[in-house]
Amino acid sequence: MLLGPGDDAAVLRAPDGRVVVSTDLLIEGRHFRRDWSSGYDIGRKAAAQNLSDIVAMGAQPTALVVGLGLPGDASADWLDALTDGLADECALVGASVAGGDIARSDTVVLGVTALGDLAGRAPVTRSGARPGDVVAVAGRLGYAAAGLALLSSGVAGPEEFAAAHRRPVPPYACGPEAAALGATAMLDVSDGLVQDLGHVAAAAGVRIIVDPATLPVPPAMAALAADLGADVLEWVLTGGEDHALAATFPPEVSLPPAWRVIGQVAEAAGTGGAVVEVPGRAEAPGGWDHFRG
């Protein structure tokens, strides 16, 4: 950042000559609740879900700009905590909050735009997956969904899952790492593993087969699902907001420990077939859709 907040616009250096841009909207009552999450938590979450989109392209995040709608009952301390959360999450990847705007609104609304730099690499898109590639994930799956179910139930349970709903932990370093390893496709898992892998399959014209036996299910998550009468694999397969990374790689690539192989890419099965298959499941599970009834 060459010129930060204080003028009409910030000035950023773009050493690669290209700028990676992503934006996300967070609305109180849909993406977070102030009775469940502190201002600091919300700031961390708002930054994380945008920074994760940048690393999913294989880029290095550089800056955020933030538009904020704020009710009159929000205190100065709450706003300070929110801005601290944004700044602290950015610090994890060496990025900065370059500026933004604020207005009064009935509920808290955050519009965050993230910027990044490719450092000379080609972007890793969703459309590059090829039959024969392996499918791998880095980061946590199902934690935020487990936390949402726990908080919604009102019962006591493992704090690690409630914390995961309030504040995701994306595997930031794994995005540029995957690009350097030759990932053929990659994306941020924000709406559920199966739904997001469906975007890769559709963009590349392939079929993706996920082996449920390879999916990591912590014993504490399985126990919580049993207590709540939930299907733990449903959390892992369809739960969003953990912001793990899913990528496809040529089969000969030796993956570092942070990446777990969970499936493979196959030839498309023709029109009408599921583009993502999970053997042993009665139907291909979905994920989060803002406009699904």
TrEMBL record:
<comment type="pathway">
    <text>Cofactor biosynthesis; thiamine diphosphate biosynthesis; thiamine diphosphate from thiamine phosphate: step 1/1.</text>
</comment>
<keyword id="KW-0547">Nucleotide-binding</keyword>
<feature type="binding site">
    <location>
        <position position="101"/>
    </location>
    <ligand>
        <name>Mg(2+) 1</name>
    </ligand>
</feature>
<feature type="binding site">
    <location>
        <position position="288"/>
    </location>
    <ligand>
        <name>substrate</name>
    </ligand>
</feature>
<dbReference type="InterPro" id="IPR036676">
    <property type="entry name" value="PurM-like_C_sf"/>
</dbReference>
<dbReference type="GO" id="GO:0000287">
    <property type="term" value="F:magnesium ion binding"/>
</dbReference>
<feature type="binding site">
    <location>
        <position position="31"/>
    </location>
    <ligand>
        <name>substrate</name>
    </ligand>
</feature>
<feature type="binding site">
    <location>
        <position position="22"/>
    </location>
    <ligand>
        <name>Mg(2+) 4</name>
    </ligand>
</feature>
<keyword id="KW-0808">Transferase</keyword>
<dbReference type="Pfam" id="PF00586">
    <property type="entry name" value="AIRS"/>
</dbReference>
<feature type="binding site">
    <location>
        <position position="190"/>
    </location>
    <ligand>
        <name>ATP</name>
    </ligand>
</feature>
<feature type="binding site">
    <location>
        <position position="241"/>
    </location>
    <ligand>
        <name>substrate</name>
    </ligand>
</feature>
<feature type="binding site">
    <location>
        <position position="24"/>
    </location>
    <ligand>
        <name>Mg(2+) 1</name>
    </ligand>
</feature>
<dbReference type="InterPro" id="IPR036921">
    <property type="entry name" value="PurM-like_N_sf"/>
</dbReference>
<dbReference type="GO" id="GO:0005524">
    <property type="term" value="F:ATP binding"/>
</dbReference>
<comment type="similarity">
    <text>Belongs to the thiamine-monophosphate kinase family.</text>
</comment>
<feature type="binding site">
    <location>
        <position position="53"/>
    </location>
    <ligand>
        <name>Mg(2+) 2</name>
    </ligand>
</feature>
<keyword id="KW-0784">Thiamine biosynthesis</keyword>
<dbReference type="GO" id="GO:0009228">
    <property type="term" value="P:thiamine biosynthetic process"/>
</dbReference>
<protein>
    <recommendedName>
        <fullName>Thiamine-monophosphate kinase</fullName>
        <ecNumber>2.7.4.16</ecNumber>
    </recommendedName>
</protein>
<feature type="binding site">
    <location>
        <position position="8"/>
    </location>
    <ligand>
        <name>Mg(2+) 4</name>
    </ligand>
</feature>
<feature type="binding site">
    <location>
        <position position="191"/>
    </location>
    <ligand>
        <name>Mg(2+) 5</name>
    </ligand>
</feature>
<comment type="function">
    <text>Catalyzes the ATP-dependent phosphorylation of thiamine-monophosphate (TMP) to form thiamine-pyrophosphate (TPP), the active form of vitamin B1.</text>
</comment>
<keyword id="KW-0460">Magnesium</keyword>
<feature type="binding site">
    <location>
        <position position="23"/>
    </location>
    <ligand>
        <name>Mg(2+) 1</name>
    </ligand>
</feature>
<dbReference type="GO" id="GO:0009229">
    <property type="term" value="P:thiamine diphosphate biosynthetic process"/>
</dbReference>
<keyword id="KW-0479">Metal-binding</keyword>
<keyword id="KW-0418">Kinase</keyword>
<feature type="binding site">
    <location>
        <position position="24"/>
    </location>
    <ligand>
        <name>Mg(2+) 2</name>
    </ligand>
</feature>
<feature type="binding site">
    <location>
        <position position="8"/>
    </location>
    <ligand>
        <name>Mg(2+) 3</name>
    </ligand>
</feature>
<dbReference type="InterPro" id="IPR006283">
    <property type="entry name" value="ThiL-like"/>
</dbReference>
<dbReference type="InterPro" id="IPR016188">
    <property type="entry name" value="PurM-like_N"/>
</dbReference>
<feature type="binding site">
    <location>
        <position position="53"/>
    </location>
    <ligand>
        <name>Mg(2+) 4</name>
    </ligand>
</feature>
<feature type="domain" description="PurM-like N-terminal">
    <location>
        <begin position="6"/>
        <end position="116"/>
    </location>
</feature>
<feature type="binding site">
    <location>
        <position position="188"/>
    </location>
    <ligand>
        <name>Mg(2+) 3</name>
    </ligand>
</feature>
<feature type="binding site">
    <location>
        <position position="126"/>
    </location>
    <ligand>
        <name>ATP</name>
    </ligand>
</feature>
<feature type="binding site">
    <location>
        <begin position="100"/>
        <end position="101"/>
    </location>
    <ligand>
        <name>ATP</name>
    </ligand>
</feature>
<dbReference type="GO" id="GO:0009030">
    <property type="term" value="F:thiamine-phosphate kinase activity"/>
</dbReference>
<keyword id="KW-0067">ATP-binding</keyword>
<feature type="binding site">
    <location>
        <position position="53"/>
    </location>
    <ligand>
        <name>Mg(2+) 3</name>
    </ligand>
</feature>
